[in-house]
Design brief:
The chain is an alpha/beta fold. It is 50% helix and 13% strand. Helix 17 packs antiparallel against helix 18. The longest helix is centred in the middle third of the chain and has 26 residues. The structure holds one RNA strand.
RNA sequence: GCGCCUGUAGCUCAGUUGGAUAGAGCAACGGACUUCUAAUCCGUAGGUCGAAGGUUCGAAUCCUUCCAGGCGCACCA
């Protein structure tokens, strides 16, 4: 749409330059936007104001010149005018919009989807929570945003894969195993005093221990810890990871790949990455540890990759992991982090540079915290004490559609208030239903039409000239905006634009519905209006599908 | 102390990367169902865009300083 207008303006600019001897800077960018007020026109451009300075001309006069060279009457342009300080406003004809609406109907599911772009292979990594406990609400936001971003990027034509990095190595896995072992002993009456504060407190640990007890009885009760631990560690980790996978499935989040950190150690990738960096002098020994010279690449300081103990740090394997991503052919790496990990971003960028890649290959998205509320009251949570609301609890309480919508409706970089009471309500306050309701209403109109014996001719035979109401064209214009919203959201990696757009879109519809009846005696007009609603229904469906939210036919 | 994020209507938030008179939802108030779903619609009211400077034709948006809140600043992950 906008590209089309840009072309029209570009041609006008060329003609103006030729006939008026106007000097145009080579790098001038034609920006098309929507006027604040719909009455001013369908599109507007500040082109004249941008040109005013280099051309040393009055922006208003320049705008008039340019507007005069727009081919009115051709290509769907109905009028071009000048307003304000020098805006050029363009109005398109109704015929133009009717044709565009036909295109939407023809596109169906692909309306809003851009053709595949070949230039980039994107790897989107998100959640990647340690498999030491169930996912909580904060992970839920990351999961919803990441999953939606994946769907969005795919719709925008990018080649995207999603991945969950499983931190199945390291000390926290030992603590998980030990926590389970201690609970197991408690269950069998062998409590060894106070449960350690730095171990995992959650009830799920006891559940795992009970599971082991049921299957293995007292088999491990007298074994020394060193001997029993590997079994407990593995059993607990598998149990927790399976739970995470199940929770995510239920939340409609499917990863293309689950990447195990352990494999990077097993196949020597970690050591290989270290050697590679050492050869190039980006790694050095000091105080018995091995450091990455990250300060040479915009990080505040150097970072330890191998501890004095000889153990590699989490950061160390992450270097290998990101190298691995690039080696798999990905040209753009997007990582979603919880806001508490933002300090990690500069060092990851440093890693990319040290590895010889452009820093811009790596892109971090920070997802801010979620404050869970219940009727305005803050729900206190603390991971350490094991008192936290899990994602699956929230989903069980409010449903997948609502939970996803609440996570997606706000910009990722603002704190999110998630009020469970509000989310549960099935009335006005809940924006999810507002959108879904519109879809259900449209479906119901089609059922009514069918019941009244309305049959569809070939789509090309529906006479769209019977669409004459202003609101019908407002609706069409809004429908046609959808591809632009998808493209822009994908470009800036901001998913919240999609729910906002959908809300605006269906608001126009709800108003139209109230004032204009679709199914009437006038058979031809009924068909024209149904045609319009079909385009709208397609748009709502495609939009909700990007959000991973269902489009119910009945409510 | 240093860094990142945030500050816009009573509340929760948008604001098309510098554009035209700053918008929506909720809450408040007043209206609208004998016709396709009232989970809806229409109207009223609500603002020193945290503060002060600066940049220019033009600033909620960019720059500087300050204030407030959140989060970081490990040989944890």
């Amino acid at each position: 749409m906008k590209e089309y207008i840009e072309k029209i303006l570009g041609e006008a600019l060329k003609r103006t330059a030729e006939t008026e001897g106007l000097e145009v800077p080579g790098d001038i960018e034609i920006i098309v936007e929507k006027p604040k007020d719909e009455k001013l026109g369908d599109f507007s451009s500040n082109l004249a104001m941008m040109l005013a300075r280099p051309a040393k001309k009055n922006p208003h006069e320049l705008a008039a010149l340019l507007a005069g060279h727009i081919a009115v009457g051709e290509g769907g342009v109905e009028s071009a005018s000048v307003a304000g300080p020098g805006f050029i406003n363009i109005t398109m004809s109704r015929g133009f919009y009717r044709d565009r609406l036909r295109q939407v109907a023809a596109q169906g599911e692909s309306h809003g989807h851009a053709p595949a772009r070949k230039e980039q292979k994107v790897l989107l990594e998100f959640v990647s929570a340690n498999p030491t406990g169930p996912l909580h609400v904060g992970h839920g936001r990351g999961a919803a945003v990441g999953d939606c971003l994946g769907r969005l990027l795919k719709a925008a034509g990018y080649d995207v894969r999603t991945e969950y990095y499983v931190n199945d190595v390291g000390n926290q896995m030992n603590i998980l195993g030990r926590s389970t072992l201690l609970r197991y002993r408690e269950l069998l009456g062998r409590s060894a005093g106070e449960f350690p504060a730095d171990h995992y407190q959650g009830d799920y640990i006891t559940d795992i221990a009970r599971d082991i007890q049921n299957k293995h009885g007292e088999e491990f009760i007298d074994r020394p810890e060193a001997e029993a631990l590997p079994f407990f560690r593995k059993t607990a980790a598998d149990w927790v990871l399976e739970g995470i996978k199940k929770d995510l499935r239920e939340f409609r989040v499917d990863f293309d790949n689950w990447f195990s950190e352990r494999t990077l150690y097993d196949d020597g990738s970690v050591n290989r990455a270290l050697d590679w960096l050492r050869e190039r002098g980006f790694v050095y020994d000091q105080d018995g540890a091995v450091w990455l010279k990250s300060s040479a690449f915009h990080d505040d300081k150097d970072r330890v990759v191998v501890k004095q103990s000889g153990e590699q740090t989490y950061f160390c394997s992450d270097i290998a992991y990101h190298q691995n991503k690039v080696e798999r052919g990905f040209t753009r790496l997007i990582d979603l982090f919880g806001a508490d990990h933002h300090g990690y971003v500069p060092r990851m960028k440093a890693v990319m540079e040290a590895l010889g890649y452009d820093e811009s290959v790596f892109h971090a998205i920070l997802v801010q915290f979620v404050t869970l509320k219940r009727g305005g009251e803050k729900v206190q949570m603390s991971t350490r004490s094991g008192q936290f609301i899990t994602l699956s609890e929230v989903v069980a309480e409010v449903g997948v559609d609502v939970a996803r919508y609440f996570f997606l409706m706000r910009s990722s970089d603002t704190h999110l208030d998630f009020d469970l009471e509000l989310a549960k309500q099935e009335t006005p306050e809940n924006p999810v239903y507002y959108i879904q309701y519109a879809h259900a209403r449209i479906c119901n109109i089609f059922i009514t039409a069918e019941q009244q014996g309305v049959t569809w001719p070939a789509k090309g035979e529906v006479d769209l000239s019977l669409l004459v109401e202003d609101e019908e064209f407002t609706l069409i214009k809004k429908i046609l905006q959808f591809p632009e919203v998808v493209e822009k959201s994908a470009q800036v990696l901001e998913v919240h634009r999609v729910p906002h757009y959908l809300h605006e879109l269906v608001a126009v519809f709800h108003g139209y519905y109230k004032r204009h009846r679709v199914v009437t005696e006038d058979r031809e007009r009924t068909l024209a209006r149904l045609f319009l609603l079909d385009g709208l229904r397609i748009t709502i469906r495609n939009g909700l599908s990007i959000l991973g939210i269902s489009a119910p036919e009945k409510m």
